[in-house]
From TrEMBL:
The keyword Oxidoreductase does not apply. Substrate binds at residues 55-58, 108, 113. It catalyses: D-glyceraldehyde + ATP = D-glyceraldehyde 3-phosphate + ADP + H(+); dihydroxyacetone + ATP = dihydroxyacetone phosphate + ADP + H(+); FAD = riboflavin cyclic-4',5'-phosphate + AMP + H(+). Pfam families: Dak1, Dak2. Catalyzes both the phosphorylation of dihydroxyacetone and of glyceraldehyde, and the splitting of ribonucleoside diphosphate-X compounds among which FAD is the best substrate. Represses IFIH1-mediated cellular antiviral response. The active site is at residue 220. This is Triokinase/FMN cyclase. Its EC number is 2.7.1.28, 2.7.1.29, 4.6.1.15. Residues 345-366 are annotated as: Disordered. One of its GO terms (molecular function) is triokinase activity. Keywords: ATP-binding, Cobalt, FAD, Flavoprotein, Kinase, Lyase, Magnesium, Manganese, Metal-binding, Multifunctional enzyme, Nucleotide-binding, Phosphoprotein, Transferase.
Amino acid sequence: VPKKLVTTVSGCADDALAGLVACNPGLRLLRGHRVVLRDDLLAIRGRVALLSGGGSGHEPAHAGYVGKGMLTGVVAGAVFASPSVGSVLAAIRAVAQAGAAGILLIVKNYTGDRLNFGMALERARAEGTDVRMVVVGDDCAFTTPGKAGRRGICGTVLIHKVAGALAEAGASLDEIEKKVMTAAKVMGTLGLSLSPCSIPGSKPSFQLAEDEMELGLGIHGEAGVRRMKVLPADKAVETMLKHMTDPSNASHLSLTPGSSVVLVVNNLGGLSCLELGIVAGAAVRCLENRGIRIARALVGSFMTALEMAGVSLTLMLVDEELVRLIDAKTTAMAWPNIVAGPATTQREEVPAPTEAPRKMQDETGIGPSTVRAQHILQRVCSTLLNMQDKLNELDRGAGDGDCGHTHARAAQAIQEWMRSRPPPAAPAQLLSALADVLLEQMGGSSGVLYGLFLTAAAQSLRGCSDSPAWADAMDAGIEAMQRSFPPGLSPGSQTNSHFSQLDSLFAAAQALHSLRSPGADLLQVLAAAVQSAEEAAEATRHMEAGAGRASYIRSSRLEQPDPGAVAVAAVLGAVLE
């Protein structure tokens, strides 16, 4: 049975509503019932009240849409179970007694919801209450009509919004009923899932293979229309939109070039926000390519299926009036508070700031030739690329396992840079250019640290590049790195982790100080520097992490050499070869 973060399985629906109400001053629970109402019920006197609801497990639906400008109240059932007739009737009575000028029930097309809300409606009418019911069926999954009709899914939220804006503006029950029924007819939704979901305390209702996705699932894990191999996001979106608008599909939405739509990209519960953004961009591009204008786009979790890793797309054909109703203000917590305007992939970008031209100073002293610089850099890049897997493996022990990827990305960026232009021959310009490449392309903390080091070292080498100047440049680079560290961290302090490349650099710098002595043998000093760096890298296996990601884990003693320190030692070794 999948793990769930609940207090009790039996009380999870009640606990979820209680938590929502506790954190939202505009909501109240109806005593003795799983019903959430607006705090300002007196404000609905003389206006139409709107009630909706259904099973729990679809959060933020339905209680997240209670508020001024949306629903007056909702009735919740247990997880994936219709609410009771008694609770629906209690909600109707509560808003009727508050002075509502008619009540509209907005119900998703599921047998249990229709029966229970319908029975409560009949009993309320028998008591003299003016109450109507609109049943929403927006599912575009099934190509042949079923006896039960189309399922009600995420498009229902748009109906909540349209009805809520009309009610807030003082529209009559007849007008609201007519307009939401018209809007519901020009709306369609389709879901796509990568995983099942599971009711707390139960096993998943179905299984999907690792390489499978399912098209057209319901929001309770009901079977869809087709299983297929996992597609890239853009292809998956194309497949969904094609199915939704296919004229041979009995439940399709007719979409023609020039149409205006509201798009809802809905997280079914377990999809990452990163994936949701990718899907949203793909949906906008695909619709634009069809000549469709996306008047508004809503992206987020609107009607979920517990932890299902999936997405649904909703399209509603809109005119100016419907767009105004979608834009109308609401205090409902789950409705996105965003700037109103169309969605487009053609949005003008902010121009990049212009960089002031650099002053090219005359360099004195003898620097490495361009050919020599290329040869050394190629060797360094080859070394880092060959070490990618080793560095990743070392990093998994106390980091996020990407140190090898990060250094390989730096190596590839340097190779690409050298293919585009010859490296500068002057040492200061060479190091400064390398700093720019790493800061732009390497990423992570390592890219910034190397950028700091190379930028400061380049400054130190301007005007002088003899052997002692290289020792000074090494010291300048290390000092620049140290200035960026958290207080209390220093080379060899046994408290570094993500910054342990400094330990190798610091050890090498100590050895390079010999270059300041007259008659120093350059190769011997460099060999000693490399050996010192390698020994310092090996010594990091006994350190305890005081910074970086490793410092946050329970046992932050590294137990193996730090990958950053190992990478630095390898780079220095490649330079000497």
